[in-house]
Write a structure and sequence with these properties.
By secondary structure, this protein is α+β, with helices and mostly antiparallel strands. 27% of the residues lie in helices and 33% in strands. Strands 4-3-2-1-6-7-5 form a seven-stranded mixed beta sheet, covered by helices on one side. The chain is globular, with a radius of gyration of 19 Å.
């Protein structure tokens, strides 16, 4: 009976550790540039907050903070655990398909205990980055500020 209980406790420790990772400093930046429309949306996520900035190519346009929220400890832990499981560090730094619309997405991920990586997607969707974008949307309660407003 003792061996069985030790086995159960060992399993609990083994599988429970991933969900209780200590959250270290991290930063995720997702910059969507819409070339034909002439504007940029920049999402920044860290261990404290999520913000969305808007900027454009027009004459009297300024970089503007349009949305910012503090993140709960639970949502930060979930997102940080997701980042630790996401295999983004194996991706190439550039993905591109032919076209002339001027659209691209830059993703930068960095932190104290996660791999740093910069990825540019020019008219390209990558499954790993789509998972990241979906998880960012989960953090945003106001649907009009989500990356994918229809979800």
């Amino acid at each position: 009976m003792r061996k069985f209980m030790a086995f159960i406790i060992g399993l609990g420790l083994l599988f429970g550790c991933n969900s209780n990772l200590p959250v270290r400093n991290f930063n995720v930046e997702i910059r969507h540039f819409y070339g034909a429309e002439g504007y940029t949306l920049l999402y920044k996520i860290n261990q404290d907050s999520l913000s969305l900035r808007y900027n454009c190519d027009f004459e009297d346009c300024n970089d503007t903070l349009i949305y910012q929220i503090p993140l709960s400890q639970e949502s930060v832990l979930d997102f940080y655990s997701f980042l630790n499981e996401l295999k983004y560090d194996t991706l190439k730094s550039n993905y591109e398909t032919d076209g002339f619309d001027g659209r691209f997405t830059d993703v930068k991920i960095s932190g104290d205990s996660i791999p740093s990586k910069s990825i540019r997607l020019v008219r390209y969707q990558h499954e790993t980055i789509e998972k990241l974008l979906d998880n960012v949307d989960i953090l945003i309660p106001d649907k009009k500020y989500r990356l994918y407003q229809s979800k």
